[in-house]
Design brief:
Number of strands: 19
CATH architecture of the largest domain: 2-Layer Sandwich
Distance between the termini: 56 Å
Number of domains: 3
Strand order of the largest sheet: 3-2-1-4-5-6
Largest sheet: 6 strands, antiparallel
Helix content: 10-25%
Strand content: 35-45%
Number of helices: 9
CATH class of the largest domain: Alpha Beta
CATH topology of the largest domain: PmbA/TldD fold
Length: 448
């Protein structure tokens, strides 16, 4: 972790906390410090609505006595000895958890890679304000835009320090810069809204504020005067990339080891079997240089590697933390994410790999169907795979996008959707979940 966030001091405090926990009676322990720094400016209708800045150092300690475990958290200024003694006292009266514990020593990261996650660029509040105002001004200047939902810009960083009682000590930091704007087009009962945003690790990589503002305006205007379409079955639906990312997120949820262990995933019995259309691959890479969700080690000190989670449509891996792996009789693959005192499996830089066809040809081949740009609701049952969500977008006729469509619902089962998906070749890997334009056959549309 760079000197700017004082990694040496935080590592020393974490080491002290672990040593005190051992002296208080813990068999094993780990201490985590999550440091965050952020500032943001939001504007609306050409005026600043808020300017915020925050800093926090959150300390967490986990202790183990046999199979008994307890966790405590504290802010800076706490008494290290008192916190360690409190955690051990809690563990002594906690029920046993046969799967809890630190990562196996053999799995710990030995070398912490520099993944270039931290940009030290200092962005002033004035610069953030100017960016937000510029986005909104450009968006509002586009003919057809009638109102603003507001714009915002932010800059910040997050850092993780981890020390364990069995020899791991490490830290890293990642910066984050973002810009976003939302607008309303049209008047009265015929208003439509849309937005655009960008988020990057490096400030220089951010899309220009003016570009983001114009995209948001154009998207909102294209949605004006939507029509309803009749109910249809066996329809091909195409997901715009920003909607497709959410679809890929359902794949990640279905192959999460914790869900599999709890038997709350519809893919829980499908390891080694075909779960996606043949030829499709889903990858996850925690060590991608400058990757949006990269990390040199996970929340347990394990360094993951790039995995093809689903290869040629066949399920190869679950996302695993140490506890989830033990429950399934497996070995962690370095996907344990720290959330406060808890560790649970998660993806990192996840991608449904692209196909060979352009999005234009994908649309052309559909003939008649629906191109979705926005989804509404959370109608996904991860236990059964049943899928039903509100949607809006554009109707496809004769292989071309025609008029906007709203107030429709698309439905199917994820098991079937996974086997009927065709990816285009337009993937953008700048976010933690990457997906190209996707066509999914055989869906039901509830309309008029």
């Amino acid at each position: 972790m760079p000197n700017e966030i004082d990694s040496v001091n935080l590592l020393q405090r974490a080491e002290q906390l672990v040593d005190l926990a051992r002296k208080a009676g813990a068999d094993r322990a780990d201490a985590v410090v999550v440091r965050s720094r952020s500032k943001s400016v939001s504007v609306r209708m050409g005026k600043v609505e808020s300017t915020e800045a925050s800093e926090s150092d959150d300390f967490s300690l986990r202790v183990f006595i046999g199979n008994q475990v307890a966790s405590v958290s504290a802010n800076p200024g706490f008494d290290l000895t008192a916190l360690a003694e409190r955690a051990v006292a809690m563990a002594r009266v906690s029920p046993e958890d046969p799967y809890s514990g630190l990562a196996d020593e053999q799995d710990l990261a030995r070398n912490i890679a520099d993944l270039e996650l931290y940009d030290p660029t200092e962005v002033s509040s004035d610069s953030l304000r100017e960016s937000a105002l510029a986005m909104e001004e450009v968006a509002r200047s586009v003919s057809g835009v009638s109102n603003s939902l507001g714009a915002g810009a932010s800059a910040g960083m997050g850092g993780l320090v981890l020390v364990t009682s069995h020899g791991f000590s490490g830290s890293y930091a990642a910066s984050r810069f973002s810009r976003s704007v939302g607008v309303i087009a049209g008047e009265g009962t015929k208003m439509e809204r849309d937005h655009d945003f960008d988020s990057r690790l490096y400030y220089a990589d951010l899309d220009d504020a003016e570009v983001i503002g114009r995209r948001a305006a154009e998207r909102a205007i294209k949605r004006l005067n939507p029509r309803q379409v009749p109910t249809a079955s066996n329809l091909t639906v195409i997901f715009d990339p920003r909607v497709a990312r959410g679809f890929v997120g359902t794949i990640a949820g279905a192959i999460n080891g914790a869900s599999v262990a709890r038997k709350t995933s519809f893919l829980r019995d499908k390891m080694g079997q075909q779960v996606l259309k043949a030829g499709l691959n889903v990858t996850d890479d925690p060590l991608k240089v400058r990757g949006s969700s990269s990390r040199p080690f996970d929340g347990e000190g394990v360094s993951g590697e790039r995995l093809t989670m689903i290869e040629d449509g066949v399920l190869q891996h679950w996302f695993l933390s140490s506890s989830a792996a033990r429950e399934l009789g497996l070995r962690t693959n370095g996907r344990g994410a720290r959330g406060g005192t808890a560790v649970s499996p998660s993806s990192t830089n996840l991608a449904l790999e692209p196909g060979d066809i352009s999005p234009e040809d994908l649309i052309r081949n559909v003939g008649t169907g629906l191109y979705i740009t926005d989804m509404i609701g959370q109608g996904v049952d991860m236990i059964t795979g049943e899928y039903s969500r509100g949607a809006s977008g554009f109707w496809i006729e004769n292989g071309e996008l025609t008029y906007p469509v709203s107030e429709v619902t698309i439905a199917s089962n994820l098991k079937d959707m996974f086997m009927r998906v065709t990816p285009a070749n337009d993937i953008d890997r700048k976010y933690g979940v990457a997906a190209p334009t996707l066509a999914i056959e055989g869906m039901t549309l509830a309309g008029l």
